[in-house]
């Protein structure tokens, strides 16, 4: 069979390389927080993408509203344009839409799909309202539509649902899908008044200048509609999502939650039952130590309940330019990859294994023999490992030491010495 | 632009359907617990796959060791064979390998990839030891290798890492990757002795007849090596995973954990640092309320720490035939889909939205007015909603009711009535 060989640094070398690096042309519509972070991320990860996928991503056009603004991005100025037709004429292989809304964003996406390009978008409103027809358009023209960044920020729930969990017989979805409101609700639970919490969210970049669609639940409603499409095959535009937000009532809702022993979350939910799907976004009181209650600040979490696969829970950062840009890049790389290859051969490369690690904490225990407490101390001293606590468990006849941070090799040496001295040691890592 | 129309039941109808249903030929090597569940799942989900992907999955051959066994599967007997060359001559489009090990399983996978077929496998030992060369073989022949089911059972971590999170700059992975040991450790924490816990795990189908590779950490070591490949591009066969299991020491390790205020988990970890990747599987003491400590029974959990995207955590069932079969089917569907389409147009179809839902619990609060406690009770009675508790918060001047389970429309009616009566109600769902 084929032999792959590796260089000293672990790079894969093929006797005749089947994957020539290919250049894939990328155009980016919108260069705000997310678009700007995407430009930076594409530059920063260029060598990873080349080694891993055999692909060179070339940015060929960036559409902006005001080209005169200095953005401090690694882009030559002639790539930046405010002219939609000029942007479209760049004939990119992949068009990233990071404008938002259903106006010019929709035009750009439709135009790109119609000519068979691959489209990657973070636009939940567009996908929730027009996703089904855009997917049809993509299928007709041989293009492709990906939208991992539209739901859950950095939580990879779109791909998980579409490619993995949809085969498990999804019964219900429940989650926190709006990082802005969750950040605000986390502050309210600590006693911060609403206005102050909103100001904090704005300062940290989680809330837009106009956070109305976050606070009234519309943003989360778009997202649960998209997830319902992937999970249940329902047209997201036709799903009526019962939606209540926290506008004007946040302080009182938080107080109600506290009075009944819980914390408030804006919970999105969709459920399949005989003949239909119901979906809601509403203020919900949950236990502080439940999965939903433990999702604090801008965290998003999605629980997928299935017939064949129990419940799968995924959580991660739900807001911010960098997580969204990373999700966009993931879709761009998938769309740019040689399509027939599940995992690219070039994916083996830049890593190198080494038996080194930073110091960690450990617990070592030995069975007690006469005088062994002092002997254990002596072995510790000898190996150069220090113990924070040494405890004798008289009931089980075991002596335990919680070690100060030490490297693997030290702990291995200690274990070997103790074993040779006949003490039958066992070792655990300590992460408490 | 293209118009897609929907029937009364929500099915997508295209004016000229671009996606003719295609038949995709699937051969399954191995028909134990996982292979058998896959056959059942393919039958059960046939109409979903047809509607969603436009694909008809046809099982063309099933390789077994002993064809004479009655398996009670929906398969015609002539499809079942113990002859490897006969199995290979079925020329399937997709070959599923569910045998395990690196003997005949490897032969079958190499043969299939060499002739350009798409291979889906649950075999962690094979992918950990030969994944890089198999991926090379797939790339050369235009085939494809997928292995979602090899790591994490039903936790969709392979695809998440490969297609999404690898673009976020992965720094470290940490998780519980072996459901069998985690089930046993959960029982030990409750005071069950090891032998009894192992017997229970066997009875529930989590532990094999020979659970040695689970208990000594080898199974988890294979899995963290595979995840390190996807996250860091390192050849899994060349990653030295420092591995300690719980063979012969489980009871003592559990007691040590308890003595130091934590619970024991078999934790797999991989970390990138300057010039290399280190990886370990070892007994680890964690807080009972940490992500790892909260993963009980056969649950698997993976935390992915990234530069651009914070930490993403995914958990779900990590053992059992059905979750593994569902993960295999997810890969089969991905491999069978029209390759250019990120989401298939046919994916819109079988769902229907309706504004109905099972009864839920709710909290309603109103601002206090004179005599309002009795008035609230009257409104509740009038709407046919019952309240478990009615509380007056004299400090904030609010009266709160925790309602008995009621449907949306009841609660909406109550809210409307209260608003009309001038009480300014707010409503939360109650999941505590």
3D structure, described in words:
The structure is a homodimer of 432-residue chains. Chain A is an alpha/beta fold. In chain A, 36% of the residues lie in helices and 25% in strands. Chain A is built from 15 helices and 18 strands. The radius of gyration of chain A is 27 Å and the shape is globular. The two termini of chain A are 48 Å apart.
SSE topology:
The structure is a homodimer of 432-residue chains.
Chain A: E1 4-6, E2 12-14, E3 22-29, H1 33-44, H2 46-53, E4 55-63, E5 80-81, H3 84-88, E6 94-97, H4 104-114, E7 118-121, H5 124-141, E8 144-146, H6 157-164, E9 170-176, H7 179-189, H8 194-203, H9 212-215, H10 218-232, E10 241-243, H11 250-259, E11 263-273, E12 276-286, H12 291-294, E13 299-306, E14 311-317, H13 321-336, E15 362-367, H14 372-383, E16 387-393, E17 398-403, H15 408-420, E18 426-430
Parallel strand pairs in A: 3-4, 3-6, 4-5, 6-7, 7-8, 10-12
Antiparallel strand pairs in A: 1-2, 9-11, 9-13, 11-12, 13-14, 15-17, 15-18, 16-17
Helix pairs in contact in A: 1-13, 4-5, 5-10, 7-8, 14-15
Measured distance between first and last alpha carbons of chain A? 48 Å
* Sheet with the most strands: spatial strand order of chain A: 5-4-3-6-7-8
* Assembly state (oligomeric): homodimer
The coarse silhouette of chain A is: globular
- Helix segment tally of chain A: 15
């Amino acid at each position: 069979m084929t032999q792959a060989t590796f260089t000293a640094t672990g790079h894969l070398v093929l006797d005749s390389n089947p994957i020539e690096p290919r250049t894939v042309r990328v155009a980016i519509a919108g260069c705000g927080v997310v678009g700007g972070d995407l430009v930076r991320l594409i530059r920063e990860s260029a060598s990873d993408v080349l080694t891993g996928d055999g692909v060179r991503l070339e940015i060929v056009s960036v559409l902006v509203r005001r080209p005169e603004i200095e953005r401090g991005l690694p882009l030559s100025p002639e790539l930046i344009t405010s002219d939609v037709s000029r942007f479209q004429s760049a004939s990119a292989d992949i068009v990233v839409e990071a404008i938002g809304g259903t106006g010019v964003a929709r035009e750009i996406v439709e135009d790109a799909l119609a000519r068979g390009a691959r489209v990657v978008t973070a636009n939940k409103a567009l996908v929730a309202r027009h996703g089904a027809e855009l997917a049809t358009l993509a299928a007709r023209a041989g293009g492709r539509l990906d939208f991992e960044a539209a739901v859950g920020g950095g939580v990879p729930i779109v791909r998980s649902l579409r490619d993995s969990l949809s085969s498990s017989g999804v019964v219900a979805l429940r989650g926190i899908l709006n990082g802005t409101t969750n950040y605000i609700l986390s502050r309210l639970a600590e006693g911060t008044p609403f206005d102050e919490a909103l100001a904090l969210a704005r300062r940290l970049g989680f809330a837009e200048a106009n956070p109305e669609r976050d606070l009234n639940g519309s943003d989360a409603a778009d997202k649960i509609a998209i997830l319902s499409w992937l999970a249940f095959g329902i047209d997201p535009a036709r799903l009526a999502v019962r939606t209540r937000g926290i506008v004007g009532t946040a302080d009182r809702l938080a107080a109600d939650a506290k009075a009944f022993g819980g914390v408030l979350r804006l919970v999105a939910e969709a459920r399949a039952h005989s003949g239909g799907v119901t979906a809601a976004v509403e203020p919900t009181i949950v236990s502080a130590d439940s999965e939903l209650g433990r999702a604090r600040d801008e965290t998003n979490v999605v629980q997928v309940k299935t017939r064949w696969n129990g419940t799968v829970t995924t959580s991660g950062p739900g807001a911010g330019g960098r997580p969204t840009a990373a999700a966009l890049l993931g879709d761009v790389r998938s769309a740019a990859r040689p399509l027939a290859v599940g995992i690219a051969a070039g994916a083996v490369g830049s890593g190198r294994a080494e038996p080194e690690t930073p110091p960690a904490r450990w617990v070592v225990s030995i069975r007690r023999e006469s005088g062994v407490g002092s002997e254990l101390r002596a072995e510790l001293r000898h190996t150069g490992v220090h113990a924070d606590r040494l405890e004798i468990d008289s009931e089980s006849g075991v002596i335990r030491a919680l070690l100060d941070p030490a490297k693997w090799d030290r702990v291995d040496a200690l274990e070997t010495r103790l074993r040779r001295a006949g003490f039958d040691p066992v070792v655990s890592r300590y992460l408490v």
